[in-house]
Structures are given as C-alpha cells and as structure tokens.
Amino acid sequence: MEEYAREPCPWRIVDDCGGAFTMGAIGGGIFQAVKGFRNAPSGMGHRMRGSLTAIKTRAPQLGGSFAVWGGLFSMIDCGLVKVRGKEDPWNSITSGAMTGAILAARNGPVAMVGSAAMGGILLALIEGAGILLTRFASSQFPTGPQFAEEPGPAPMGSPSFGDYRQYQ
Amino acid sequence: MPVAVGPYGQTQPSCFDRVKMGFMMGFAVGMAAGAMFGTFSCLRIGMRGRELMGGVGKTMMQSGGTFGTFMAIGMGIRC
C-alpha cells in the first residue's frame, strides 16, 4: 500500500487506524451479507433479515480488529522510523511481524512466533508487490523517478510454523 | 489525496482504475500468501498428492479473493 502519498509520521497512526476500520467494516459488511444470506432459513424475508443481522453483529467487530492491527502496525512503523532514521520496506516487515507477535501475546510464545511469521510474510508480500508495481509504473514512463530500493526478499522458511491461524 | 495531475504532466489513473489495480495486487498477494499458508495447513491435516494440489488451489483462490476485495476497498476509500 505505497501508492498514495502517506501522511507524515505521527498522524499516520490515526490515518491508518481509521482507514483500516473503514476497510474492515466495509469488507466485513460485504462478506457477512453473503454469509448471513446463505445461512439463514429459506424465504426472502428471513434471508434479508439474516444478512442484516450478520452485518450488524460481525462487521464492526471485523473493523475493530482491523483497526487494532492497523493502529499498532503504524505505531511500530513510526517508532522504527524514529529509531532507525530511515524509511524502507524492512520497517513495514518488522512492524508487521511485531504486530502479529504482540496481538498473539496472550496465546503463548508458540502462537506469538507463528503469528509474527505470518505478519512478516504477509507484509513482505505486500511490500514486494508495491515495489514491483512502482518499478513497473516507472519503467513505463522513462522520465519517472528511479527507485533505488532493494526488492525486500520474502523471508522464506520461517521456523516453527505451528499455529499461524491464531491471529486476532 | 494529491491533486489529479501527476508530476510528469500525466493524469493520475481514475478511481476505478485504482480500485482495479488494488484488486489485482491484492489478488496476487493473496494467491502467494494462500500458496504458502495453504500448503502448510493442508499438509498438517494430512493431505497428500492430488488431494493436496486441490486443497492448496482452493485456499489460494479463497485467500486471493478475500485479499483482493479488501485491497480494492482500501484503494476505493482513499480516492
């Protein structure tokens, strides 16, 4: 998600938190509408009401967990920017892994490692896709800016890939 | 969002283009992530051979679709 001009650092936390909540709420609304529609008893009224109930109960929850993820992620991201003094893909990857670890902290160390690996891999994939996209876009316009970043390799082969599904 | 005219005299892609690009990117990321995580989880529940291929493919499509939808929404709310 590097296409838009990102906010300067302290405000990025608020921006990401709200953006993540909106994204989770809308996406959760779409998916829960389908799910509620399919799981309700037959009859159009029941199905409509079932999908509305599913949206009302689950979409804000999903938005909330997205917002927690996004807010914590960009808090750690901003902290790393301050500590390391530079902004590169490794910041995002590290903060994704740390976010996963922190959010799984109550499930024990094994879950923390699994969740951290998942967050890191996911963020590495997203960053890699963003970099590829930027390269592609800039190769189309020869006067475009040249990006001197290395394409953050995905850390394959994570240790102890036990309970990666236990993220929040 | 920045203004609609880019720094090189080219107009920014339209809103629908951005949503489409977000979906494509999310789909690719989701496919890659689904390939990894799907392989692990299908191996854990004891799938082998042809069955494993099917299971991984299904996980890849599912997570690609989910990711693509969320990325498309994420692009859509920012333009």
Give an account of the 3D structure.
The complex is a heterodimer of chains A (168) and B (79). Chain A is mainly α. Chain A has two domains: 1-86, no CATH class; 88-138, no CATH class. Chain A has helices at 9-39, 44-84, 89-103, 109-140. The longest helix of chain A has 41 residues, at 44-84. In chain B, 73% of the residues lie in helices and 0% in strands. Chain B has helices at 15-44, 49-76. The longest helix of chain B is centred in the middle third of the chain and has 30 residues, at 15-44. Chain B is rod-shaped and about 50 Å long. Chain B starts with 14 loop residues before the first helix and ends with a helix. In chain B, 38% of the residues are buried. The model of chain B has no long low-confidence stretch (mean pLDDT 81).
Round the mean pLDDT of chain A to the nearest integer and report it.
79
Low-confidence stretches of chain A: 143-168
Gyration radius over CA of chain A: 19 Å
What is the overall silhouette of chain B? rod-shaped
Biggest sheet character of chain B: none
Radius of gyration of chain B: 17 Å
Helix fraction of chain A by DSSP (H/I, runs of at least 4) = over 70%
| Number of helices, where a helix is a run of at least 4 consecutive DSSP H or I residues of chain B | 2
Q: How much helical structure, as a percent, in the residues of chain B? A: over 70%
Number of strands of chain A: 0
Order of helices and strands of chain B: HH
